[in-house]
Amino acid sequence: MTKPQMLMIGAATERMLGQLAEVFAVHRLPEDREGFLAQHGTDIEYLLVNGHGGVPGDLMARMPKLRIISNYGVGYDSVDVATAVRHGVVVTHTPDVLNDEVANTAVLLVLATARNFLHDNAYLKAGRWPEEGEAPLSRSIRGLTAGILGLGRIGKATAEKLQAFGVTVTYHGRSEQDVPYRYYPDLVAMARDADILICIAPGGPATRHLIDRAVLDALGPDGTLINVGRGSVVDEAALIAALQEGRLGKAGLDVFEHEPHVPAELMAMETVTLLPHVGSATVETRQAMGDLAVENLTAFHATGRAVTPVPECRGM
Ligand code: NAP
Ligand code: 8YV
């Protein structure tokens, strides 16, 4: 029997490829996108994308038999869900299995920025310790207040971990939740009262540049911005200006507005700790995410139902 046709855009692990090949005829989108679509576009029913590149609406129009898009990641702002729903295409993602890892990344960024660990590591390796003596003192996080923008699955996991370090948690979102943390309906007010602002909100038009000059100024010269959500939530130009002008103290960033391009101004600043979008990037967590991304495709193939559709596609 011929296998159903599946297209893969972006990276996947060997384990995922092995699992997928058992069920599907797997294609990778080649450089010659037009040539591929002309030859195979009308046969593709299943699509796997990674959360970075996503799938634009115009590509969907070239695949009229498309039934499901499985996103290998929880954030799906790069998938045009409205167009997918209009075409009757189910979109799935990988919630929960990465909460712990991404929360660890957020806490590590909080600690790395406060304690200057990467700077101290470079100081030692450059041979400066014997020459220049002890590295400068850093700051403790005990007793600080962290305001979380986006107290969702990952935000809640981060809040729990921060409490073990003696950090008080507050949060902002569109709605108040039944949680033991103070809710701020106003993001600027939360930033004003916080030492650390942690962004774990999704990307997309609704959250674009929520963290702007006013929020950064409210956080202030002793404040720290941590972003493990999406780069688009932060006005990067405003962030660079605030850091350069000393209106904001420090930043720890895993995500950027135009990945994989990171502004040279951010790279040049010692007060900034940068990671190349590795929040969930461990073997263990990527395995769990990969298994779920594949299961969404195979379960849909076998039963017509996906395991973890995005909220907009529940019931499809
Ligand atoms: P989630 O459970 O859906 O939580 C998202 C939170 O954001 C909710 O608490 C929501 O609260 C808040 N939110 C949504 N829209 C908002 C808006 N317009 N204004 C203010 N708050 C808003 O999602 P999650 O699983 O925790 O994942 C969160 C995000 O983290 C993902 O979408 C992804 O972008 C990012 N992420 C990054 C990495 C990484 O590698 N760095 C890894 C995984 C995920 P309300 O509904 O009350 O507003
Ligand atoms: C991954 C992420 O970088 O899940 C997300 O939303 O940003 C990350 O876990 C990515 O999606 C892996 O493909």
Chart the SSEs and their pairings.
Blueprint: E1 5-9, H1 14-23, E2 25-28, H2 33-40, E3 44-50, H3 57-61, E4 68-72, H4 81-86, E5 90-92, H5 99-115, H6 117-125, H7 128-132, E6 145-149, H8 153-164, E7 168-172, E8 182-183, H9 187-193, E9 196-199, H10 213-219, E10 224-227, H11 236-244, E11 250-253, H12 264-268, E12 272-274, H13 283-303
Parallel strand pairs: 1-2, 1-3, 3-4, 4-5, 6-7, 6-9, 7-8, 9-10, 10-11, 11-12
Helix pairs in contact: 1-13, 5-8, 9-10
2-keto-D-gluconic acid (8YV) is lined by residues 50-51, 72-75, 98, 277, 279-280.
Describe the protein in words:
The relative contact order is 0.14. This protein starts with a strand and ends in a 13-residue tail after the last helix. It has two domains: 122 residues, Rossmann fold (3-Layer(aba) Sandwich), CATH 3.40.50.720; 176 residues, NAD(P)-binding Rossmann-like Domain (Rossmann fold, 3-Layer(aba) Sandwich), CATH 3.40.50.720. It is elongated, with a radius of gyration of 22 Å. The model has no long low-confidence stretch (mean pLDDT 96). The longest helix has 21 residues. It is α/β, with parallel strands linked by helices and 316 residues long. The strands form two sheets. A seven-stranded parallel beta sheet has the order 8-7-6-9-10-11-12, sandwiched between helices. The protein has a five-stranded parallel beta sheet with strand order 2-1-3-4-5. Helix 1 links the parallel strand 1 and strand 2. The protein is built from 13 helices and twelve strands. The structure holds NADP nicotinamide-adenine-dinucleotide phosphate and 2-keto-D-gluconic acid.
